Amino acid sequence: MTSNKFSRRDVLRTGGAAGIGLWAASNGLPAFAQDAAPEMDLPQGAAGKLTVIHRTEYFEAAQNLFRDTVTKFAAANNSELDISTTNPESFGDFLGKMSAAVQAGNPPDLAYTSNVSVPQMHLLGLLEDVNDVVEEAISKYGNVMRGINAEKIGKIDGKWMAIPFIANTTGTFFRGDKLKEKGIDPQTLDTWEKRREAALAISDPDNEFWGWGLTVNQSGDGWGVASGILNAFGGHFTDETGTKVEFDSPETVAAYEFVRETYDRNGKYAAMLPPGVESWGDISNNEAYLAGSIGYTHNAFSVYAAAKRDNNPVFPGTILLRQPNANNGDSRDGGAVGGWLTIFKGAPNVDLARKLALELLDPANFTPMSAVAGGLFMPAYENLWTDELIAADPNYAIIKDQVSVPEPFIGASWPAQPAAQIDAIRAQGVLEQSMGNVIAGRMTSQEAVTDAHNKIVQIFEEGGIM
């Protein structure tokens, strides 16, 4: 199965870093922001030198265990090691540089990343076929978790092009102690509407406590909230094929009306809105929740993990809820591959990289990393969910439930499969910016929806979709 309609030529013809960035933004970050840090050179692979790049872990203990595993593996295989702890954004034009490295025959051997689009790397011809590695992992550690949509992203034309490494799910966190004070049963809060009412009920702005810690501003978290509301009302970007734009619909307009009402500073819900929430970035809700000033937020498990690690006073009152259902009652539960292992085309040490991937998945190495990572480093394979691991945290069992659902919600691309063209919409911030137009009163809901629809059509036409 191939999940996107762009060709490699379509991606490259848009030109350079800007063109490649148009189709990026895979897991919660804008496309390779180049203003975050001085740009780094991509490590060069060489025969006899195992070259590994990996993401920075939120918990240093998990990161150290990862690096120790790689270091011991390299030593056991008599290989020199070059291991870089960094994120792709640090390299600036990561995909452009990786394309050049592949063409030159000196790319890194293996990468562990969470915010680079696998379909896009495949389109650019950057990835080795790793079908044999994933099949061996499945034979040893059980099937890939059903609820993380791994096959729809990492398996292209019937072959695995990336190795599922970790599973995750976005947490929906409420201050259970505040709900209890108001006599609200958290298990009844199964829709966006019910959660909005609960957030209002627990708000106490005179004491600097606001219930609604969610933004639709352009950011990773904002995309998740905005697309979640859109899909809950039945709004969607395209038809099932992913090629016909169907954004402008009564369902989408209804979703925008919900957003308008929610963020109206003169309306019913004003008391639950923290100062500046309309312009929050990814770090803002983390800081606000950990400071004890908001009652409800959606976030990666980093906010939960930080509260746990630091013995934050909000931690004992924090409860994890499942994703809010759609308005028609359909479940929106599910998870995602939180991290992929990729081996680059023509890497100098491909066979060694394949062996290393399996070594990292060995429960003797994986379970200790997972146990100390506060929900951010969960197994992507069924049999790696051991009793030992689940016992490490009472909420790990809830995470397992969410990444095990047999028919997980496909995500923002619904009803189409995940694809590069959806990444393009996300990278351009079309959804969040149009909702911002409604919140600011620059457009009515219908005007904003029509405007966004036309922009999506333009993106698709420029990408060769329409």
**Count of helical stretches:** 20
Average of pLDDT: 88
Taking all Cα atoms into account, the compactness measure Rg is: 22 Å
* Major beta sheet summary: 6 strands, mixed
Give the strand content: 5-15%
Give the spatial strand order of the biggest sheet. Answer: 2-1-3-11-6-12
Q: What is the 3D form?
A: globular
Low-confidence stretches: 1-37
Question: What proportion of the residues is helical, as a percent range?
Answer: 40-55%
* Head-to-tail CA distance between termini: 21 Å
Helix and strand composition category: alpha/beta
Counting DSSP E segments of at least 2 residues, the number of strands comes to 12
Topology:
Blueprint: H1 8-13, H2 16-22, E1 49-54, H3 60-76, E2 80-85, H4 94-104, E3 110-113, H5 118-123, H6 131-141, H7 150-154, E4 155-156, E5 159-160, E6 163-168, E7 171-175, H8 176-181, H9 192-202, E8 210-212, H10 220-232, H11 250-262, H12 282-290, E9 294-299, H13 302-309, E10 318-321, E11 336-343, H14 350-361, H15 363-371, E12 378-379, H16 387-390, H17 396-402, H18 420-428, H19 430-439, H20 445-462
Parallel strand pairs: 1-2, 1-3, 8-9
Antiparallel strand pairs: 3-11, 4-5, 6-11, 6-12, 7-9, 7-10
Describe the structure in your own words.
There is one protein chain. With 466 residues, the chain is α/β, with parallel strands linked by helices. It is 41% helix and 12% strand. The protein is built from 20 helices and twelve strands. The chain has helices at residues 8-13, 16-22, 60-76, 94-104, 118-123, 131-141, 150-154, 176-181, 192-202, 220-232, 250-262, 282-290, 302-309, 350-361, 363-371, 387-390, 396-402, 420-428, 430-439, 445-462; strands at 49-54, 80-85, 110-113, 155-156, 159-160, 163-168, 171-175, 210-212, 294-299, 318-321, 336-343, 378-379. The strands form three sheets. A six-stranded mixed β-sheet has the order 2-1-3-11-6-12, with helices on both faces. A four-stranded mixed β-sheet has the order 8-9-7-10. A hairpin with a 2-residue loop joins strand 4 and strand 5. The chain is globular, with a radius of gyration of 22 Å. The two termini are 21 Å apart. Residues 1-37 have low confidence and may be disordered.
